[in-house]
């Protein structure tokens, strides 16, 4: 196990524009590289004094009061850098945009202790050891391919995490689903843990709100190529929502009840569908405001070879 500690020391004088502001809000404004939750934890643990006194997070501060912060940040990790190839679409000092391949787990978990995107990031960008989750602010399922953004410093991490919570980061996916859709639509259905299968998700009345929009790109005999837009980012959201309305993603081993491919299909297409062993889901496009410049930026990850070949087979025979 590795332990990385760093000392954080600040002396701040409250400026006029933050007079009579909550202590935690004032500090999160003055120290944008640190999340408000982290600052609140420092205050609670007594690492913050105002004119030599320990206050509560909700206590208000006055102009010209002196705030001293003396905190230790300890990152405890068992994660090792690993040399794993990365398809980097864009990078600068603040963010990294990656096209994740299908089959690569985003970060370690049960059954996947290493050989993940996170391990690869730590190898290529050693400075990410100082960023929560190595800068990863959102995830893609192991067998979902496509575009992801990774933050490279604390300010970018805090800024984009908040933008994600405010639903200001736009994410567009493409998928091949079972069934011929008549038209596009929207699914607004809460998602929570499956009542009996704890590793799965399900539509549940007491789940977290979730909204997915979908549009038809091309309709085939028994399948549809769709464009999907996320408003929220719940675990397995697209897979759960599309299965919920009767159009599970082709190849999805978890949420599709269509386990057998129809024998009526052309043999070549049937073989292609039978051998497609992952959900046909790809994170196509990402749009966000750059955390430092504020410039609106967008990137696209091309349709991967396996989904492209599946669409070609459907166009020829489906």
* Assembly category: single chain
CATH architecture of the largest domain: 2-Layer Sandwich
Total strand segments: 16
Measured on Cα atoms, how large is the radius of gyration?
Answer: 23 Å
CATH topology of the largest domain, which one? Pseudouridine synthase
The SSE string, one letter per element, is EEHHEEEEEHEHEEEEEEHHEEH
CATH superfamily of the largest domain: Pseudouridine synthase
Percent strand equals 25-35%
Distance between the termini: 53 Å
Number of helices: 7
Classify the helix fraction into a percent range: 10-25%
The residue ranges in which pLDDT falls below 50 over 5 or more consecutive positions are none
Largest sheet: 9 strands, mixed
What's the overall geometry?
Answer: elongated
Number of domains: 3
Q: Please report the first level of CATH classification, the CATH class of the largest domain.
A: Alpha Beta
Notable characteristics:
3-stranded antiparallel sheet, 318 residues, 7 helices, alpha+beta, 16 strands, 9-stranded mixed sheet, Pseudouridine synthase, single chain, 3 domains, Structural Genomics Hypothetical 15.5 Kd Protein In mrcA-pckA Intergenic Region, Chain A
């Amino acid at each position: 196990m590795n332990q990385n500690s760093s000392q954080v020391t600040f002396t701040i004088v409250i400026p006029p524009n933050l007079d009579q502001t909550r202590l935690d809000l004032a500090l999160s404004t003055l120290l944008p590289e640190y999340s408000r939750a982290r600052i609140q934890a420092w205050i609670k643990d007594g690492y913050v004094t105002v004119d030599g006194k320990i206050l509560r997070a909700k206590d208000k501060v006055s102009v010209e009061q002196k705030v001293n912060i003396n905190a230790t940040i300890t990152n405890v990790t068992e994660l090792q850098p690993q040399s794993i190839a990365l398809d980097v679409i864009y990078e600068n000092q603040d963010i990294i945009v990656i096209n994740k391949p299908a089959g690569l787990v985003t970060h370690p978990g049960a059954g996947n202790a290493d050989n993940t995107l996170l391990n690869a990031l730590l190898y290529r960008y050693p400075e990410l050891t100082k960023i929560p989750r190595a800068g990863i602010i959102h995830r893609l399922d192991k067998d979902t391919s496509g575009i992801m953004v990774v933050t490279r410093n604390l300010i970018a991490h805090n800024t984009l995490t908040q933008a994600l919570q405010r639903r200001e980061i736009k994410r567009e996916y493409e998928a091949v689903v079972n069934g011929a859709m008549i038209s596009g639509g929207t699914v607004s259905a809460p998602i929570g843990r499956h009542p009996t299968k704890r590793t799965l998700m399900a539509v549940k009345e007491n789940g977290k709100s979730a909204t997915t929009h979908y549009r038809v790109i091309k309709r085939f005999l028994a399948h549809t190529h769709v464009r999907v837009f996320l408003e929220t980012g719940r675990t397995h959201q697209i897979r759960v929502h599309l299965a919920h309305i009767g159009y599970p993603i082709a190849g999805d081993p978890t949420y599709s009840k269509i386990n057998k491919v129809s024998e009526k299909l052309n043999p070549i297409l049937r073989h292609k569908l039978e051998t497609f062993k992952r959900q046909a889901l790809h994170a196509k496009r990402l749009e966000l405001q750059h955390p430092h410049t504020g410039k609106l930026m967008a990137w696209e990850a091309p349709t991967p070879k396996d989904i492209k070949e599946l669409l070609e087979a459907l166009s020829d025979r489906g």
